[in-house]
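Let's practice the habit of predicting before peeking. Look at the sequence and jot down your guess about where helices and strands might fall. Then scroll down.
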Amino acid sequence: MTLDPSGAVQRRFPWLGYGIIWAVILLLTLLPLFSVLFTAAVAEANGCQVDEGSAHVCMVMGQDWGELLYFTGVMGWLMLATFPLGGGAFIVWLIVLIIHRLAWRRAQTRPSS
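Done guessing? Here is the structure:
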């Protein structure tokens, strides 16, 4: 909060709250992609075969990570849902942000009685 020259209290627009919500939308949208990228990186680094048909033995640090890599690789199919839902959530977030910002600016410029 700050005081303007007339002595009225001016509140700051809550950019931080909108930024946090945007970050959560982005993270949830991209989680399946991160899962696939993790799978590809581990499988390539260890010379493992990963496909959606079945789990294959993949020895990483002396343990079989085949089932985990199979699971994280198949989780990539969630992108078919999370990308459209995340895009829709972003559009709703953006519309709410614009409306709130316009209303906030109008309230700030309105003379106080």
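How did you do? The chain is about 65% helix and 5% strand.
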